[in-house]
Design a protein that fits this description.
- This protein is α/β, with parallel strands linked by helices and about 130 residues long.
- It has a five-stranded parallel beta sheet with strand order 2-1-3-4-5, with helices on both faces.
- Helix 4 links the parallel strand 4 and strand 5.
Length: about 130
């Protein structure tokens, strides 16, 4: 599974990339919305993980821009937030398929990825 990770925090990028790659996933990192959009145009991602707060754009704006691309239209998206429950409702309204609060429970992350990999899951919006 190829994952687009959109997060501006170098430590978060490193920890998540290292862990996910050790679990057999391929991770491509974007530091901001512009880089995420450029990578999204290339396609080939099965899931995107997007931080809700980035310097140039917020997560819902990035998701909307990515979903406007033919190659990313049905790509499941996980919202990641340091504000915890405050962002949970907003993620559903924005079209995210799942929500994880920071600090991320790595076991919950893998369960979420496995769920999103199931056929048809990209159509079901829910919070995990």
């Amino acid at each position: 599974m190829r994952i687009l990770l959109v997060d501006d925090n170098p430590l978060m990028q490193q920890v998540l990339s290292h862990y996910l790659e050790s679990q057999g996933y391929t991770v491509v990192v974007a530091e901001d919305g512009a880089e995420a959009l450029a990578l999204g145009q290339q396609g080939g991602f099965q899931v995107c993980m997007i931080d809700m707060r980035l310097p140039d754009q917020e997560g819902p704006e990035i998701l909307a821009a990515l979903r406007a691309l033919p190659s990313m239209r049905t790509c499941p998206a996980i919202a990641v937030s340091g504000l915890g429950e405050k962002d949970r409702g907003r993620t559903l309204a924005a079209g995210f398929n799942a929500f994880l609060a920071k600090p991320i429970d790595l076991d919950a992350l893998v369960r979420t990825l496995e769920h999103l990999a199931e056929p048809g899951s990209e159509q079901a919006v829910g919070v995990i």
